[in-house]
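ENTRY TYPE: paired fold submission
RECORD: A
CONTENT: sequence, then structure tokens
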Amino acid sequence: MSVNSFTKHEPLIFKTGSNIKLIHRAEFCKSIIADGKELITGNESGEIRVPELKDEKVYITFKDDVTDLSYAFFDCTVTSIPENLFANCPKATDFSGTFNGCTALIEIPEQLFANNPEVTSFYDTFYGCRALISIPENLFAKNPNVTDFTYTFSFCKSLKYIQKNLFANNPKVTIFQRTFWKCSALKSIPENLFANNPKVTTFQGTFSACDALAAIPENLFANNPEVTDFIHTFYGCSALTAIPENLFANNPAVTTFDGTFSGCKALTEIPENLFANNPEVISFNATFIICLALTAIPNNLFANNPKVTDFSETFEGCWALKSIPSSLFDNNRKVTSFSETFRGCTSLTGESPYTMIEDQKVHLYERVNYPDHFTEPIVFWDCFYDSTDMRDYIQAPDDWKE
């Protein structure tokens, strides 16, 4: 039996009813049989709908030479996919958005992409598949050339767990941007999830808005030495209570931690050596903004980040924060922006941060007077806005606090 005939006898399962969308891009198809009728008769393109679907089983065969299967089933009411659906598409390179918006899809067959060794992109592939509960461990095992997993499982709100070897055979991946964004049922991450992806450069928003995520394994990024940004990686993980101290210990090339833990409302503390091995960082913009349970900052949190220029909004809205270590920014002398750094930190008492220069306290707002020691801050509005109980609040210039 040929691959094509085998595929033909393995139907997709759709919701029955009226005005049912079967395919979003008919130009990819050799055959579509629904309710016993062939719907591909010539040069059809775009979406194909049927006014009424009585039989849930629909048989679809793709063209042999198809390379692009992007958005093939976008926003379709498919509930189940046959394992050999793409078996006759060995040249396929792009599965971007293939099942985007398939809100009724409840499972993915493990060998779905087993015959697609040339694929490079799974961008957006299962975005918004809200009924999907799990992902088979070997789903991408035969796809060694993939470079992009951007948005792949974003908005899969029922996804409860991730298999540890899901990306084990994808050594060329460079992008995991928002891969699991808004997977609100996800409670944990396997420690070796990215162990075989040494080329990754960005984890931007990878687990952002994963509301149920309670912990992060310490070695999650241990084998990703080329990462340059962790922008919004755990943004809005409101159940997260702690961060492992060595989480970024093997990521020396990182340049930005913008918004990394923004909105982690249950986070109570930050380990002192969290950024100790990240000497190239230039921005901590909004890194811990709205971490409502945070009460303290370790003295040496930024001691090994001498290239930082931006601390805008870093601790904005951390209203439980009681004090700031006086030496917090001693080794950060190139900073040009302190705008809103502690805005809304209403529980702050004690003195604002300062550096000792020849037995003289030099506060952040006084750095402008010491050009031989500091780069002049040029953006600093609202740095201490509403921190009225701070000892030197009155002393600070108005444009630093309003």
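RECORD: B
CONTENT: sequence, then structure tokens
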Amino acid sequence: MFILYLTPEPYSPSMLEAALIDKYKSTKGCKNEKNGGDTCQWSGETSEKRLYMTYVASCASVVRAARGFVEDVGAPAASKSGGLLDLARRSENNAERDCARLMVNQFELGLPIPKTKLDTGVPDDDLSVPVLRLRDWVDFLVRGNHTHILVGLKKPNWKREEAILSAFWANFERQFPTHPVFESARQGNLDLGKTFPMVFHGDEGRGRKRLPFLVLNFHSVLGRGLQVHSKKKPGWIKMAPNYHGHTLTSRFLLAALPKAAYTNEHGHVWESLMDLAADEARHMFFTGVTDLISGRGTFHMAMLHICGDWPWLADSGGFKRSYRNVQKHKTRTKPPVGICHMRAAGQIGYDFEQLNTDQPAWIATMFTQELFCEGFDPSPFVRIPHVPGQTGALWYFDVFHTMHLGVCKYLLGSCLALMSEVEPGSSIDARFDSLSCRFIRWCKESKRRPHIAKLTKELIGWQVQTTFPSGTWHKGGLSSVLMDFVEHAYEANKGSWPRMLQSAGQAVVNCNAFLRTLYAGDAWLSVGQAEKAAQHGLDFLRCYAGLARIALREQRCLWVLQPKHHAMHHLVLYLWNCSRKGKTLNPLCMATQADEDFIGRPSRLSRRVTAQPQQICNRVLGRYLQSAYAQWVKAGYIIRPKHGTNKVR
């Protein structure tokens, strides 16, 4: 017996799904499998919730399958499944359009966010790019009584929402009293209890044929927190980072388009997208959206930061200085321009590698140099209300890319290289096999997912010992597991380890303590938490700098120094300085782990629609709104009507 489909729900249209599986079972991704693939582990949920299925089927094939199902069981029986007969009547010639009309227009199975054509300023532009404006998102949230999502509440509570926002801005004013939001509030132009702190994020996912696919979104600084099973009962004024919950319910898409649509002859589209994001942020700050249904007044938003990985920060800002300007050779023909858009770090006399102090030479150059390239217009984001004289602070270094996909990979590369040297074996491969066995055994004992099959010298790019080892993986979770493994090994064997390896183990302990302090905090860190995190961060940087000096003295290629160490130095000094003023906004509020998940969703959708740039943007947005609608219903934010009614709550 060959089971085509397994479902815990009785009397469902599973035969239609079984037919699709039977037809496409040889296609990659079209099979019954665990969520995330056959290599992932089951969750601790009940068996009924462990049934997952991946669909990669065209709309035309769905229409054909629906027709075949109706022919097999007859129209009377098929009519018991709502919409099946209507689906079978769709045309195969333009099934994407007809299915969208059925699902969205007739059955209202999509979020009602209107698509707006991007104004590129080119009258005869052959490319039409649809966007979802922030003001339209907010209008939908206000009309549907969903503003509680923006402060991390599960259910609407108007008084509590205003109390949370008022408390947020009270903390923010202690740190940045000159921000324009407070002057606007004093003038009566906005109500801080109805002003949401927002972040703008952008990055490129992987679209069709592994080509870049740009995804831009806004999201609130506040959310439902980090720890899913936290026993700590939140207070009335709950302020937590925006992580928990499905990203389709907490992130608000602005645009999604393939690289061909914003490069080369369409390069003006990139500039138009940046202009649009800045204009939407300004509109929500100065104009806002008025509640015409419940009479709650006008809601505003203040965009505090632009976040993402360093390439995105450099591209969106058009900076004169970034990591791309780091000196790559011993000799130079002209003075280096520096690597930091906010300071002179990387220039002569201001070494970004000066990690062993809380008063590096470059700290005195904060916001003293021109931010943008000469001869080019400033970034449109300079028009966003921000702290006067601190334009560069709008672009925020991301903890996730800085630490998990940066500093931790450099640290672990050298740590694993040294740990392999104390393992038994006559060759480097044999020693790594021994180390790998210990790692896999530790993962089983501690019930941690290893993410990899084994540890190898290729994993850290250490095929020859004349290169600096560094992690070659692209999964932040692997960095976290390996950091814990190295710390465990250090605590168990530090007495027998060589001096350099002992110092490396202490560096890992300090780095882990820095990250754990951040992850244990809420949206606002107490003075003690901020000081503790900053101290652990400074201890790690000093330890790492000491290791680099030892390696240089011993002429060993270990402990590479990279621009991301400077980005971490920024984060640590931010915590140190802000802790002197009061509560500190947790850098995790601007981190991008959840955004990385969100980026993957429109990117995967782009692989399943037409490859024509003219249509791909529109169809991805359409499918995105349908996918988001399903998650909003699942989360209980939207309540579907009972059979026979037409209105949606």
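NOTES ON RECORD B: Residues 1-5, 31-55 have pLDDT under 50 and may be disordered. Residues 399-590 form one domain.
STATUS: closed
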